[in-house]
Every structure is written in structure tokens, then in C-alpha cells.
Amino acid sequence: MRLSRAFLPTLKETPAEAQIASHRLMLRAGLVRQTSAGIYAWLPLGLRALRRIEQIVREEQDRAGAQEMLMPTIQPAELWRESGRYDDYGKEMLRIRDRHDREMLYGPTNEEMVTDIFKAYARSYRDLPRILYHIQWKFRDEVRPRFGVMRGREFLMKDAYSFDLDKEGAIRSYRAMMLAYMRTFQRMGLKAVPMAAETGPIGGDLSHEFIILAETGESAVFYDAGFETLDWEHSDYDYDDPEDLARFAALLTSMYAATDEKHDPAAWEKVPTERRREGRGIEVGHIFYFGTKYSAAMGLALAGPDGRPVAPEMGSYGIGVSRLVGAIIEANHDEAGIKWPDPVAPWPAAILNLKRGDAACDALCERLYAALGGEAVYDDRDERAGVKFADADLMGFPWQAIVGPRGAASGRVELKRRATGERQEVSLEDAVAKIRG
Amino acid sequence: MRLSRAFLPTLKETPAEAQIASHRLMLRAGLVRQTSAGIYAWLPLGLRALRRIEQIVREEQDRAGAQEMLMPTIQPAELWRESGRYDDYGKEMLRIRDRHDREMLYGPTNEEMVTDIFKAYARSYRDLPRILYHIQWKFRDEVRPRFGVMRGREFLMKDAYSFDLDKEGAIRSYRAMMLAYMRTFQRMGLKAVPMAAETGPIGGDLSHEFIILAETGESAVFYDAGFETLDWEHSDYDYDDPEDLARFAALLTSMYAATDEKHDPAAWEKVPTERRREGRGIEVGHIFYFGTKYSAAMGLALAGPDGRPVAPEMGSYGIGVSRLVGAIIEANHDEAGIKWPDPVAPWPAAILNLKRGDAACDALCERLYAALGGEAVYDDRDERAGVKFADADLMGFPWQAIVGPRGAASGRVELKRRATGERQEVSLEDAVAKIRG
């Protein structure tokens, strides 16, 4: 993408309304623009990061055996009357009447709808187990939206739903999602801690939140220091082996970790003092086992192995995909801007032409841009070097390939690693190799 | 995807409400399920087709120099008051009040919002030209939704918006989108005809609809037979060359083609009788040039080359992405089911194991499935061969790899091409090569 033709705007001023770093940087770097309170348009730079994060979430759901579908944003009120949640949900639910005065709503979650869809097709225990998921925009009419995409009203969520024959199967699905979640966050360079949590309006009796530790987090958290040094390899666990899944769940749940809502002072006392950590965190995922709450209420019953009808045991599993953009920035930034981890960077590199119009600079930049297959941001604007440095730091591409007249004359590129500030002078070929990783 | 574990349900009965082939087949093959009138959930099979279609649309927008962003579904009413369309739009607009009683709406289109966003960042003529697009769910509260996803209420649309310094530039952008559209539909195996069209609520004085000829189409159309044999190569036209774009536009607009709303009997009389074609068609795209209608109304003015403010000339360009799934099926089906064109097929092949439990059949199927990298539907269900044949025909995978005991004993696969019914006995290696294309 040539910056001279791109729609990649940055702001010089820090918007007054932004209280936390990720919100400030997302506005300044041109990732998003607020269009109403708590509702954002994703500009090209932000959308690319969002899509990369979404793709990692998708790949790990698929790997765990979940199957992607897509439910609509607008749901009929009747479904929520069946489960009894229509009246319970309160003002966070965006309620709508269509032209025929039918009661509709903008989905905040999809337990009812997925149960209704599954019921339409599944016939017997042979249709179990299944995990279905979708990645779709949701709406929760927060009374006070804040922190940018971290607590917006229209947000992108991955929500999965498991259907199993019995509790044992449901716990296996729950553990498979635990593994998929830990791997998802690990791939994004995030250290997530699963914490015992309240089930809230979803219901059920088993629930974990996945928390990224960050000073600006909304939740107070208590955890064992062992999580800080927890070391595990995804390849050591097989989704098809229940014992592997049990072993992984045990690894994660053997140490104390809880949000303040579930904090248990008696259990906390048993954690050795030197291992007790208190802090704040950002919730990026939440999983629930709730048994037959929805299947029973909505009449989902399948023929069991003995022919008698059985209500599937269910769970649901959410990841805040758009919120993750903010969480990743909270964990990866400095005063100058964003420092994207490679796996989620909108582009891997920016090419900075320090002297546009200089034949050697122009030629080397064009060669580098072509060698990267156009998969870089080429700053070919008629701007001062200082502006280009500042924008590249702000937008946070993992690599900056800096081309000035002196280096260009001898075919050399100065390659800067945004995360560390490390610089080295390299040939074009080496620059391409390093950027391509 | 192993069918024994997949959520790929099919229906034996033809749903009574489906009046046209695509609607009937989308329900029977398990592509979608209606969740409210005119609102559909996309099941895994349908979602995969939708995503492939979406990706072709995206690639051709990118190739034409358009830049992807993503605007939210919920918009503030004030924006539409600025343009004057809030009251004009009527009951098709889904109007919403949030918990603070603010007037919102579910976006049916985005001229106002994109103009407002562009205005926030663009400063001068150097920020022109730009084409921005997004692929997002829209809502139009149709009084009588019908024909499945062809006239649904919640639908996926690609909408692009061009900003140019002057009319000449705007016409160039308009022509670039004409080329991108024709290439988009061509890649999907569709023959689209651009027809002069009414501008309707978008406004402006130049507009074309892109129509796929189909008996079940909602629009009556009149066109020159020359469109049936029109031959053109995308590679003959360069998006950066205004003369190429003018030449392409001339090719498309030199022959008569109009929907009944714009039909001109006087011009029609000049078409030689033997070249006059009347029929019906499905609108899959619509492009508009409307000058400064929105930029002027919403105060978008940039510093021109002479320093004086100028309102950019704009156009907008829509493709009905979810509707295309229906249109492609209308053009590619028979009594038995869908016949997916290769570029948009959810999976390239189904592997039909005719005798599950037979060691040779099971082994050959597993080898073939592995050789295709899991990128096939493997029908490993405990079902009769007839059920497997019928489901594969219904779901419409371009290839069927049929494995029975006789062939399996000698390592042979019967490969059936769904589109033509042609069958051949081949080795596993040849089957993989043909399926991979």
C-alpha cells in the first residue's frame, strides 16, 4: 500500500476522551473512528489487525473441531421468551420493533438461536457431540460505553456452543475450548490466565474467564505466581484424547486464580504468601458449562442410545475479537505508539523513503516494495523524515525499512525492529528475508 | 470434513414456502435456515460458499485500487438528517431507539457515514482520489421478504464509495468499478449485463444495474443479443489507464440494455429486430454517480489545487454478496441439486465411501481424504449408497470421488463431475490432481 494513495490517516492530537493507552493509540494511529457512543468504524489499518486476530481465533476453533456458521444479528423476541431471558436481560438488550410491529432485538449472544437451529436438524445421539461457532457483531447497550473498543456497544465476538450427550462429554468439550483458548491467546503473544468466574446471565455452574494481566484492566484479580512462569506446549495435547484434555485442565486449574467476584479468602490463605499476586486484568474470553438449561427450556431432545429422549448437555464459549485489538495494544505499546506482535500486525513492514525524488532512494524503495509483493506500507509521501518516523512508530509495524540517500547509493537499507528499537544495515535481500520471518 | 461428525444437514422434503429453485435448494441442501421472516442463519455449507464469493468480490475491489474498511451496522439518525434522507427513506429503514432514547437505525447503505468519516481526515486535493469499501450486513425492512436470500431483510452487501476532485475523475472511478464488477461476476462463472437504471433513493444522474439473466428474475429486461456473445479479457485493461477504462465502458454501453424502468422504446426500435432480446434478470450489482449530492449536503470540502475549497465528486457501488449465492444457484442447478462452479464451491469434492467397514474402501477413502489435506467432505456415514449419491448431488460439490469395494480392491476411484455428469475411473493420484484443478 502506497501511503500517498492510501486511506491510512493519523492524528497529531491525542483525543481528549481517551482514558487508556489502547483507546488513545487506536484513535491516533487511525485504527478506528467513533461514529456514535461506543460504536466504531474500522479504518483500513484497524480492520487488517482485526481480521488477523479473527483468523487466529477461527483457525484454533477449527483445530479444536468446532464448525463455523453465521447467525444473523437481528433475532426474534419469541426465542428469548422461550428461555425466559427476554425480560431478565434488562436495558443492555437493544430492543427493536420492525415495520409490522414485531418484537425483535440485536443479538447480545446466541444460546437461544443456536439451540433452536440445532433442534431443527439433530435427531439422535449420533448427531452428538457437536461444537458450532460463529464470529458475528453483537450489540450490548452499555449504559456508559468507554475505553474505546474495550467496552463498546457494537462489538465482534466469537461465540461457540457445544452439544453433548452427557455431562462427561460436556466437560470434555469445555476442556477442549480451554485448550483452544490458551493456544489462541498464546499465538497472539498474550499471556492469559483462566480464572474461576461468575456465570451471570448465561447461567450454569462452571465458568472461567480468560484474563490478560494489565494495569488498566477493569477486573481486580488474585492469582498464583505460578501462572507467570507457566510453560506448556500446544503440541503435547491431543483434542481427540480425553485424558490429554483432563491433564491440560488440571494444569490450569490446580493453581489459584479468581476475579474479585469469585475470590475465596479461605482458599487464598492456602497460597504461600510469596506466591500471591493481586492485580488487574482484561477479560478476553469467557466459557460456561450450563448443562440442560437451554435444551430443556427450548424442547431440544434427541433420541438417546436406548431410544429414550435426552436433552443435550451444553456449554458456550466467547472471545471478544474486537476487544482483543485493544488488549493486544495495552500489552504492546510505548509512548511513541503501537508495537504489533508479528502474528497480528496489519502489515509486517513500513518502507520509509527519506528522500522522495532521489533516484537511488526511489529505485531501492520500489524494488523492496515489489520484492515484498506489495505486502508493506510504502511511505512515498512528500513529507519530512521526522513525520515518517513518527507515523511508522505510531502505526507500529514490526519492521521499518528506512531508505536514505547514503544507504541507497550502496544498495543498503536500515532495518529497525519496532519492538526493541534495534537497528541494522542490511542488503535488500536480507531485509526481505527478515521481514518475511 | 467427515460427514459423520459434521453439521451439514440436508432436508428430504421441499419446504412449502420456497417459490424459486435457489431458495428451495438452499433450504434443502442446508445452506441456510430462516430465523425470522427474511432473516437467515448461514449453516456451515452456505457460509463457506458465501465466504468464497465475498473473497472474490474483495480481491477485485482491491485490484481496482479500492481500500477495505468496516463501518458498523448501527448508525445515528443525525447523519441521515444532514443528507435529508432520514424522512425520505420510509419504512424500509429499521429505526431503533437506544436506552437513552437516542434515534438510531440499522444501516441500509452508507453514503452518509462514509462521507462523514472521510470529512474527518481528508484535507486537500492530495487526499483524492480514493475509493473506500466495506463488506457488511445491511438491513432493509422489506414489506414482503421472499425468494430466500434473494430478497431478504438482513443481507450482506459490498458497498464502495469514490471521492474525486472533478467529474472527469469520478467518471474514471465509475468505469474502474464497471471493470471490477464485470471481472467479479466473470470469475464466478456468471454472465452479467450492465443496464441503464434508475437512481432511486441514492440519487444522481448516472447509474447502471448489473443483471444476471434468469427466468426467475424480478426485473424485466431488454438487451441487444450482442451481450450473449460478448468476449473480453480482463488483462486487456489497465486500471491506471483512463483510456483503457473508457474503452471498456464504451464496449459495455455501446449496445442497448435497459431494465423496464429505463426502457426507451425509441432507442429499442433502432436495434435490429433479430438482435432484440427480452427476458428477466436478477440484479446483483448497482453503481451510481451522484456528483456532490452528499459532499455538499454534509459539508465535505477540501482545499483544491488553487487553495479554494471544493466538494469532492462521489459515486457509490454495491454488490449483493449474499444475494449472489442465490443468483449463482439459479444459474447452476438441476432437479437433483446445486452444481457449484469451481471458484465458489464450499468444498471442491465429496468422497463417497459406498461400503463403510470394508477395509479396502475405508483405507482408500482415508488416503484420498488425507491427500486432499482434509479439504473435502468425506461421507463416512453409516448410510445407503443411494442416500450418499443424493446428498452429494444436492449439496453440489464439483467433484464426487466414489469408492466402492470393486474399485477399492484395485485402488481405483470413480470420479464424477457434477456439472456434466461425466464419470471416469482413475487412480487416487489422478483423482487428487483433477480435484485440485
TrEMBL record, chains A, B:
GO terms for cellular component: cytosol. Gene3D superfamilies: Anticodon-binding domain, Bira Bifunctional Protein, Domain 2. InterPro entries: aa-tRNA-synt_IIb, aa-tRNA-synth_II, aa-tRNA-synth_II/BPL/LPL, Anticodon-bd, Anticodon-bd_dom_sf, Pro-tRNA-ligase_IIa, Pro-tRNA-synth_IIa_bac-type, Pro-tRNA_synthetase. One of its GO terms (biological process) is prolyl-tRNA aminoacylation. It comes from the Bacteria. Pfam families: HGTP_anticodon, tRNA-synt_2b. Residues 38-341 form the Aminoacyl-transfer RNA synthetases class-II family profile domain. Its main location: cytoplasm. PROSITE patterns: AA_TRNA_LIGASE_II. Coiled coil: none annotated. GO terms for molecular function: ATP binding; proline-tRNA ligase activity. Homodimer. NCBIfam families: PRK12325.1, proS_fam_II. This is Proline--tRNA ligase. It comes from Caldovatus sediminis. The lineage of its organism: Bacteria, Pseudomonadati, Pseudomonadota, Alphaproteobacteria, Acetobacterales. The gene is proS.
